[in-house]
Amino acid sequence: MNITPLxxxxxxxxPTKCWLRFAAEPxxxxxxxxxxxxETEKYRIYAAKKLTTNFSxxxxxxxxxxxxxKTAQWQFALDIPVRTELSSSRGNEAQTSPSENxxxxxxxxxxxxxxxxxxxxxxxxxxxxxxxxxxxRFIHRxxxxxxDKLLLAFDAFVLAEMLGRAVSLGxxxxxxxxxxxxVKAPALASEVRKRLGKITASLASPAPPDxxxxxxxxECEFQARCRKLAVEKDDLSxxxxxxxxxxxxxxxxxxxxxxxxxxxxxxxxxxxxxxDKREKYHHALKTLAIREQKIHIVGSPELKLAGTPVYLDxxxxxxxxxxxxxxxxxxxxxxxxxxxxxxxxxxxxxxxWREFLALLETVQQPVLIHYGSFETDFFKSMIGRxxxxxxxxxAAATALMHPVNLLALIFAQIYFxxxxxxxxxxxxxxxxQWSVTDASGPLSIALRSEWECSxxxxxxxxxxxxxxxxxxxxxxxxxxxxxxxxxxGAETATKSEMFVRAEDLRSAQSSLWRxxxxxxxxxxxxxxxSHWNYQRNRIYARTNPRLRxxxxxxxxxxxxxxxxxxxxxPLGCPACGFALLKKRxxxxxxxxxxxxxxRGISRCVTxxxxxxxxxxxxxxxxxxxxxxxxxxxxxSGFVAYLLYQMTELVVxxxxxxxxxxxxxxxxxxxxxxxxxxxxxxAEYYTPTxxxxxxxxxxxxxxxxxxxxxVVKGTRAYxxxxxxxxxxxxxxxxxxxxSLLKKxxxxxxxxxxxxxxxxxxxxxxxxxxxxxxxxxxxxxxLLQEPFNKELAAIASGFGALLKSIVQTIDRFGLRARxxxxxxxxxxxxxSEISKSSFESDTASSYKRRFEKxxxxxxxxxxxxxxxxxxxxxxxxxxxxxxxxKVTRGASTEDSxxxxxxxxxxxxxxxxxxxxxxxxxxxxxxxxHAFAESRRRRKRATEVQSPLT
Length: 947
Prior knowledge:
The chain is α/β, with parallel strands linked by helices. Helix content is 45%, strand content 16%. It folds into 5 domains: 2-213, Lambda Exonuclease, Chain A, CATH 3.90.320; 219-297, no CATH class; 308-487, 2-Layer Sandwich (Nucleotidyltransferase, domain 5), CATH 3.30.420; 563-680, no CATH class; 683-922, no CATH class.
């Protein structure tokens, strides 16, 4: 087994490529790979001749050079073959773990050989110091990679093995300038030995390694063969964005194909803390789109193009940092105009950049549209080399400041049914065809190099045509994204065959025990016969005596009566006055109640009876008096416990019913019975609810916020109004400001709210939530990290607010301590107003500060007025917890009842009162109840001997 530099280099790129080369697999051909090979040979010959000129004829070895280097007298030699044996023991040492085919390494030793491009010999400095040999490798590229250093380290390793002593240094001569890079070979020797052990194990196997497609495939001569096999196997490596670590993790779970992965996608609700962050990329959703051949959308992607679209595609030579072709397509459809700006040499690069800027100036409101990071790097490089457009807000400057990268919009939000997000694959999906079918990014590099050598017009036309097709593909893709992002209502129904929203998949997959629709009625019958209740009550009960006599799960149990009370017992006949009366039947009513003790709760079922009587003398019948019968079936303790569980602890009604039946044996058959209890309780506490509203409106401070609610599948809204003590929840069908005007029409205190425009209609001092403004600034700053204007605004606002918060932390919300910040606020607003901004984002914040300058720092003039709306947001969370439990099943009336009780519960919490104690007391005034508790506590403290 001979391991050559070609095999070693191939293994660094792809183990499969190494095995195929060793097995002499005929290559399918790759124009770029052939060009790389040709360029390497040409550069090697030219660089060797140039390097030879540094030595005299007597110092250079005359080919063929003897392989006995120990007796050599020359100082420089070319093309020296070196060969040595790699023993099996050394191969074993190279193994990272015993599991890596160590048995195959023991079967045979490997021979490693190379042909050194050049060797420089440094004569011995003394008898004890042998001559040093420096291997030299020629690489035509300007930019080197780690693989290039490992190739040189391989040469040094083979040379060291043959000499029997270490080779301490190697050189790489590379690039157009023939730059020299010195490499310390011993530092890479262990890595080379490790790779040689893996190569030996791989080549000893009769079968090729597991097929894995990677980035090198575009430059490989076996690309077509491997791609075909991967498609046949439906291999996971077809997904271009999936790393090896992710593939290995999926394989450990038994997922080996794209189709298998597609069945694992489960849409999940994003946590609140992540809603403002970028969506995570889902490989499972990508594979689902491929399997169903439909575009899948996550969230609500937006594509706003306010101006004339300018589609841009740039061709360049990354190794030389040279951009030679700028393709610009201006307009839309048949009226679009294509421009191709070509640079013959590096000196012409600045010329085509200036032509490009001049072209942008002729377009009214240009919007630059590109695909990927290559054009982003192009903008940075060109501005750095040749300068940005004029500082004045020109059309070109505006377009360059806010380009639209379609790949950034597509990533993690729009999943096309393609294995990668390359423009070529997505362009084919949107029905675009390239005139140059075999063209690609790597091949364009080879074509440009060929043109520079011979300058044939056909190659130039081919490159320009390829670039123009990319611009046209950008236009097609933009049209498709515009349709996709703007579809609403009826359009969604008409395009549902091609577009699927990931949120819509949740309804079908959110529950593990969802209802299944069967294609045949027989299947439905068989499925119902397999249900747990059916089998246990109808099948197993026939053979199991224990189950046969067990009562049905839905049967009612008899309620044990704890106490009986006779309500009416007449002293005599009302007609004749006879005292002896006989009982003739009775009417009764059971009242279920709970009694609270110091150490627990007990049930109390009371039987209230009222008898009919008959007089033995005159025979008159005296009917039962039912006027004293209780009107409700549930006592006050039961109602207090029920409201506490539902409102304070947010326990579902079904769970409360099961708890009462299991713990207290009350035999409540349906949780729907609680609806009347809640309605009566809400009616009882309506005066309390209204009194809280009056207190709020007559007070000096209100925090307001709103949130969504669902009533029988219809969207509604719940408004929250609170101060430091009371909370009120108000139901509304819409989010319009009419409810605000009705509720806060007479309010003259300070209103703290967010930036929703409806609050501006209230005629009172207002404080806008500065936390909302801070979050908006932070989000925009993260999206535009290079926007210096926006950064300046954010920095000034942050410094101002920081100093105010430090004062609040020290002295509290007291106007006499906060008045000193009015000067800083006025200075900040004045600087913002005087500044002129070129970026749209900074200009929008300027308008925002100017519009709300009288409402941003109102809290500086008042005591106990917060600079944020956290009080209302905290109250909103209480309703959100209740909303999660009801899940939109409430009617409007029942939701209003819940809001009354929730208002009382949160008011008790704000005032430090136990909600359950308040319900048990029967009191309607929360303030009076709280004061009575405080008086009782003070009296206890006075009487305590420890005081």
